[in-house]
Amino acid sequence: MNRAHTKIAVAFGILGLAGTAATAPLLAARGPTPVVSSPISPRIVTAQQGHARFLMGARLSIPARLVVRITRVSTRRLMKTVVSSAIHRSGRAFLLIQATDSLGYQLPQGAYTVFIGATSAGGRNARGHSYALTLNYSPPRGVFDWYTVPNDGDIRTSLKLHTSSGQVVAAVHPGGAVASAGILRGDVIQSINGLSVASAGGYARAVRLMPASTPVTIQLLRGTTPLTKTITAPPDWTTIPSMTSQLGAAAATKAFGFGYALVAYDVSIGHFGPATRIIGTWSRADAATATAQIARAQLMAAERRQPAALTYWTKALALNGTLAQAAFGQGIAYDAMGNDPAAANAFAHAARLDGASAADPAYQALALEQAHLPYLAIPPAGAAVSIDSTDPNALAAEGVALIQTGQRAVGVSALEHGVVLTDDPARAQLLISTFLEASVP
């Protein structure tokens, strides 16, 4: 299930901002020349293959664009040039550099020279600085070619399942890794690679930490029979085929749980019309369920109709008080409507309902930070990191809270860690420009 969009979601990764781009040279240089001082550049970057990135920073004497060039030592080939898309103010500036070449392919492991400089609005180039950089990669993250939904009460009833937790497999891509492992539609996943997926929070963590090209065990229930399957997932840069036809076939069984899965998938890929039409076909009994309210809320949220989404999230929670996703959705909607205290309370409720989710307390912390209550944000931010110390949302939330409560050094370290782990460059740049640049001397 996908969660909705708001300004908190901007900070933690749903909406997009402008990234970085090369700028055309000006015809004639004019004005003062920027001075680049106190550069910041890593010497060694060790990151997961396919997710490697690093921060480059410097102090600027005048407003200017940062310029970073990456050259491979073994071939002396310029691999990439990155220029800030916007002019930075004078003072500390950062760029998040993806470890890819100019065509978007991952840079090979090995030794590089990185140059950091600056260009003024008038086209004058600063005298830059060069540093040695070594890139090391750990194994990539895997990806499943299935579509799952949480095993909530309405889905469990409609599919006649025999367990009250886990993630329900709604569709499997024929001939893919999941199908080859013998996993079927209707199976209820209990654990992945030894990590419980009893809740949505646990599932999100297990999927994010799953290695590619390595056999991992999947514990599941098929009816009342516990089974163990072994799957070797491809790297997460693999394109997963559309699940529309498989989910359509599942929904054709008239089981409400599979119909909901198709709606959720359609919403996730922007097919709002088909999702609306499917909702309109549900029986009166199915349409009155908590899961149906979640489907409507997801659709309203995706269409940026947050007040309507809030109404449906609230209805869902009134019908089933155990739905952490509904409480989280309330928080997103309240935040979009500018009610930070209500958002923080909703996220706190979600965190109580799903103790395996690092996202819920992380979002609670950010809502409290936005409400100018950073000291109250420290406990949920710390709880998020305790749940998952590699979750970028948790690290960013903790970093911001620590910075705002005067613990600058440890806060900057946590925030930098969260920034380089995030997979959304726009989210990272927002955290950089809003918090990091103002906190590093």
Describe the protein in words.
It is a single chain. The chain is α+β, with helices and mostly antiparallel strands and 441 residues long. It has three domains: 31-138, Sandwich (Immunoglobulin-like), CATH 2.60.40.2550; 153-232, PDZ domain (Pdz3 Domain, Roll); 289-439, Serine Threonine Protein Phosphatase 5, Tetratricopeptide repeat. 41% of the residues lie in helices and 22% in strands. It is built from 17 helices and 14 strands. A hairpin with an 8-residue loop joins strand 7 (110-120) and strand 8 (129-138). Helix 9 runs parallel beside helix 11 (324-336) and helix 13 packs antiparallel against helix 14. The longest helix has 15 residues, at 425-439. The two termini are 41 Å apart.
In short:
The protein has 441 residues and is α+β, with helices and mostly antiparallel strands. It contains 17 helices and 14 strands.
Task: Give me the secondary-structure topology.
Elements: H1 7-12, E1 36-40, E2 44-48, E3 53-60, E4 64-72, E5 77-83, E6 91-98, E7 110-120, E8 129-138, E9 146-150, H2 153-159, E10 167-172, H3 177-180, E11 188-192, E12 195-196, H4 200-208, E13 215-222, E14 225-232, H5 244-251, H6 256-268, H7 272-281, H8 284-287, H9 290-302, H10 306-319, H11 324-336, H12 340-353, H13 359-370, H14 374-387, H15 392-404, H16 408-421, H17 425-439
Helix pairs in contact: 2-6, 5-6, 6-7, 6-9, 7-9, 9-10, 9-11, 10-11, 11-12, 12-13, 13-14, 13-15, 14-15, 15-16, 16-17
